[in-house]
């Protein structure tokens, strides 16, 4: 393969455009391109502004067995950072404007609008080519139905990596930490520095996070290869199911099977097999969402979920709705409210899940199925 | 369409054979053909012995909403028979031998071997062209992992319909009941005769069956069109999941999604949404099977389930193993024991689930996945 650098991305772009693997976009007069799929080793979400390449955030592998996974993949000590249940953004400065890119490489109108609330932006004055990689999470986000248990309103931002424009890799861990401190960036919680053999301590840590309903950990090796892996709690598997069970037919069924398998491996490794509370939580995760979906269907004739978020500028709320409508092909977006409140524009909209809506319509009317 | 009769089936056979929709089989020197798929209105499982056609058992539609389903589909009173959690057979006499056909139209070596234990065969002396449609169920059956809660050992047979060789339809209900009585056939429990508006009584009945962990009901309209529908209990959905969760990756994921949807509709219609016991049972259904699978994998390096059954003749045990090996393409059959006990041949074998075996092997070794 060629070396993965900005020149290679720019050279590959015409082919990617021709094959539909890259697309042109515009955001308030700013024109850019982004890779909509992994393509010739260039990660999906890589965005190009003129000659400036912002590499996509790379995939981090997941292990489903903690001890075996650590032992199989890590050769040096590693940091364990908390994995936050939110959406991934890369924040950088393009032509004097600081913008936030989604995982897919779109400029996110919501995050970009709220950046001044989410983090100090001074880092971009001294390091104008810095790319800040972070998770945005909270109950009032426009993308995800679930959020970390410790956030009660709005959204927060949690930095976990620094990149540079035009380069695919990350800043070394200690440099990243130094800059986070220096610029007062809000960071993901760091839960420790572990030796490869310290799996008992890790096991105790993940169980604590599980009990606190947190999502999990990302391990980052203290080595030049900067090897990484993620591992999630059983609670996060249940939370994913809970958040998605009213969307049972619009997600691929493997979504649920994967989480069940992760949960079962978690339960076995951490010796929780007989926990009635956990079993009840899993049962509730499936049934409560479907129950709400049915009640919703009976009341409104569709299955939907309401999302709320607040923005500084009205035009960004409208750009967000446009983006959501284009991004979710088969899921319908219904704007419900846009009003000023405490200096923000408060946006409410619904996502309508068409497959479950259609299926419940048929089944509640007594439709006969042949299976 | 042509009228569905024996002549039509025989006429269509060469095309079906050419297109791979019908196959030749032999059972102890008896040669026959059977339709392996629905084909030009001929149901899958239709079997042909020379000029004698045994029609496949037709599909019965399922409703997922009891009251709405009854009101949408029934125009006359109907009988409510219990649906038994077993496998469907058609029993008939071919050249002086009474045989049992599976749903797919194979001669079942197990059921055929055990017929003398399962039902009186006198009906075939007086009605040599009768076809007895029945469910065989019990903990010692070679096909299904679950069985009705009221059966503690071996298998039993439950007759629910009578057909005639060469004809696709059923004997009228009252004639069927008269023959069942006259020949002392073991029948499925009949739970009553209901008017279309009596949905409250039906609701109470299905809740009782649910509490007793029984499978459900089949409704048969008292009318010349003999309209039918089936409806299952929430308990049966949980039981299906429980019986199959150690087979999580070898079944299509929709298997689980469908049962979750059925269960959620049952819970909502019968006002059980806050039942902690039911939620815990659902959680257990998923987690206990997977836990057992993991323990099994750690002990034996494969995920399997052990089946036991008893037969009269040793050669039928061997024919059964051959049949199982051919019937389940990707699931491996491992014979474990065949010994004489109390006048029967006791057969034990294992079904190995390859997808979960392979996946657990990888994951428990710490494999990294990218999702």
Kindly state the mean pLDDT of chain A as a whole number?
A: 95
Radius of gyration of chain A: 22 Å
Q: Enumerate how many helices of chain A there are, as a single number.
A: 11
Tell me the number of strands of chain A.
Answer: 17
Coarse morphology of chain A: globular
The main sheet of chain A comes to:
4 strands, antiparallel
Structural class of chain A: alpha+beta
Task: Give the % helix of chain A.
Answer: 25-40%
**Cross-sheet strand order for the largest sheet of chain A:** 1-2-3-4
Distance between the termini of chain A: 48 Å
Instruction: Please give the most extensive interface between any two protein chains, plus how many residues each contributes.
Output: A-B, 56 and 56 residues
Give the ordered list of helices and strands of chain A: HEEEEEHEEEHHEEHEHEEHHHEHEEHE
Q: Which stretches of chain A are low in confidence, meaning pLDDT under 50 for 5 or more residues running?
A: none
DSSP strand content of chain A: 25-35%
Oligomerization: homodimer
Could you walk me through the main structural features you see in this protein, from its secondary elements to its overall organization?
- Two copies of one chain form a homodimer.
- Chain A is 37% helix and 27% strand.
- Chain A has helices spanning 6-18, 66-73, 109-118, 123-126, 173-182, 199-211, 234-244, 253-269, 276-300, 314-327, 354-364; strands at residues 22-27, 30-35, 47-49, 52-54, 62-63, 78-83, 87-94, 97-102, 130-137, 156-164, 190-194, 216-221, 228-232, 304-311, 332-341, 344-352, 368-369.
- The first copy, chain A, has a four-stranded antiparallel sheet.
- In chain A, helix 7 packs parallel to helix 9.
- At the A-B interface, strand 5, helix 2, helix 8, helix 9 and helix 11 of A face strand 5, helix 2, helix 8, helix 9 and helix 11 of B.
